[in-house]
Structures are given as structure tokens and as C-alpha cells.
Amino acid sequence: MLITSKPESLELQAKLFRGFADPSRLSILEALRGGELAVTEIVQATGLTQSNVSNHLSCLRDCGLVTSEQQGRFSYYQLSDQRVEDLLSLTDELLADVAKGVYECTRYEAKEA
């Protein structure tokens, strides 16, 4: 049973959601919703640089959100668990209902680079 009232559990949940909160990482996760891809394919799908994709894939892999498999010279990445896809789908559904409020929210503005 998951008890979310413990501070450690809340911190861990917040850390998980920070993994989804970065636009580059989210873009990569979205690209992987269609199935496994090599880094070059993720670069094409996201428009991010190869070094940026590799850096974020390392983070996503370390956090357990994606897995990789070496096939010859290439590593292919995929979502680690169907629940990652499910969470992204639930996000789409929720956003369809609350998009106006999220768009107008001034409390969670993107940080300037």
C-alpha cells in the first residue's frame, strides 16, 4: 500500500514529476510513445541536438522511465513501462479538460534559459 502522506514519499513523487516537467525530456518521452527509436531518430522527431537528446536520455534511463537495448552500433530506446505511456495518455485527457486554466496559470511559468 502506498502512503503518500510521508514527506519522503511526497519528495519522491515530486522528483518523478520533475522528470516529466522538462520540455526536452517530455518531448523525448512523447517521441517514444510510438515505439523504440535510435538516438538519431529521436533527434529527428524532437528537433533537439544529438548531445541534448543523449544527455536527457541518460537522465530518463537513470530514473527508470526509459530503457535501452544495444543492436549493433546503435542503442534503441523505449518507454520502460506501459504505465509511462498510460500516464502520458492520462495527461492528454486531463489537459483536454483543463487546458485553459493551465495556459493562463501564472504560478508555473517556464524558467528563462
List the helices and strands and how they pair.
Elements (H helix, E strand, L loop, with lengths): L6 H15 L1 H10 L4 E2 H8 L3 H13 L3 E6 L2 E6 L2 H23 L9
Antiparallel strand pairs: 1-3, 2-3
Characteristic terms for this protein:
three-stranded antiparallel beta sheet, alpha+beta, globular, Arc Repressor Mutant, subunit A
Explain the overall architecture.
The chain has a single domain (about 20-105), classed as Arc Repressor Mutant, subunit A (Orthogonal Bundle). The chain is an alpha+beta fold. It is about 60% helix and about 10% strand. It has helices spanning about 5-20, 25-30, 40-45, 50-60, 80-105; strands at about 35-40, 65-70, 75-80. It has five helices and three strands; from the N terminus they run H-H-E-H-H-E-E-H.
Short description:
The protein is of the alpha+beta class.
Helix content: 55-70%
CATH architecture: Orthogonal Bundle
Q: How are strands sequenced across the largest beta sheet?
A: 1-3-2
Order of helices and strands: HHEHHEEH
